[in-house]
Write a structure and sequence with these properties.
Layout: H1 2-69, H2 71-77, E1 91-101, E2 107-119, E3 124-137, H3 139-148, E4 157-175, E5 181-197, E6 204-218, E7 221-235, E8 240-256
Antiparallel strand pairs: 1-2, 1-8, 2-3, 3-4, 4-5, 5-6, 6-7, 7-8
């Protein structure tokens, strides 16, 4: 009885030892599984965090590069206001054009003008010009002669020269039917000079006042609409009279130099 039980007991002990060993091996493996999952989760988090870190790094690099450029370069890179299309200060304008008389019903004039203006600033210009007038009597003048038997005295402008000052208090822009934005400035002018008429060879002094609108179609070309009033004294048989010759016309402005440069791109 005793001899038969010993092998059985020995077998039981061996089985218990095998189970214990297997149990010990399985417990670390189970414990390590969550750790592996944690490492996988942290790797995923790191992968998710990489784009944000790269974006932050790029921003830091960009900020550092902009800071290194200095304040002057930063001001150049920022455009708060639209650039002025036509810079007038320090440039010369050659205005060529002409006009028609508007005030006198007995005589009419056509004018050809040339003016050279130096723009000392964006608002002020000084210059000089010359005019050639082509005058003639109107149909009303002939009616007075035929209907009343009168021969009115006439004074026709011939040629003259003047100096002038321009002031530009108004600057603006408008859209030309959706084709583009045109820049303009309104100005007033004041000047004077000497002219010759058909009533004698002597030069007569005159004063000149006027106003106009200048449209900047190109950086080197502009178009102006002007009204001018030439005021002069004329000697007639009966008395001296103050005459006003009002003209409306167009001026084509050619700008020298033709290009425009900006110190700062603002």
């Amino acid at each position: 009885m005793t001899v038969l039980q010993l092998p059985i007991i020995t077998s039981l002990i061996r089985c218990i030892g095998v189970v214990a060993v297997l149990t010990c091996w399985s417990q670390p493996a189970a414990a390590q599984a969550p750790a592996g999952d944690s490492e996988a989760g942290s790797s995923a988090e790191k992968a998710d965090a990489k784009p944000e870190d790269a974006d932050t790094a790029r921003r830091s690099t960009l900020t550092r590069e902009l800071a290194e450029k200095g304040e002057a370069d930063l001001q150049k890179s920022v455009r708060v206001f639209q650039q002025r299309y036509l810079v007038k200060a320090g440039r010369v304008e050659l205005a060529l054009g002409g006009g028609l008389s508007m005030a006198d019903s007995l005589v009419s004039h056509q004018a050809a003008d040339a003016t050279l203006l130096v723009h000392v600033s964006e608002r002020v210009a000084i210059g000089a010009g010359a005019s050639k007038w082509f005058g003639a009597t109107t149909a009303k003048f002939s009616q007075v002669e035929s209907n009343f038997g009168l021969f009115p005295e006439k004074s026709l402008l011939q040629a003259g020269g003047h100096g002038q000052v321009q002031l530009s208090p108004v600057v603006g822009k408008f859209s030309s039917f959706g084709l583009g934005v045109l820049q303009l400035d309104g100005y007033v002018l004041l000047g004077g000079g000497a002219l010759r008429t058909t009533r004698g060879e002597n030069l007569k002094p005159f004063g000149m006042v006027g106003a106009g609108v200048r449209i900047h179609s190109l950086r080197w070309l502009s178009l102006s609409f002007e009204l001018r009033d030439y005021i002069t004294s004329e000697k007639f048989i009966a008395e001296n009279r103050l005459l006003q010759h009002v003209f409306g016309g167009l001026q084509l402005g050619i700008w020298i130099p033709p290009s425009v440069s900006y110190r700062l791109a603002r």
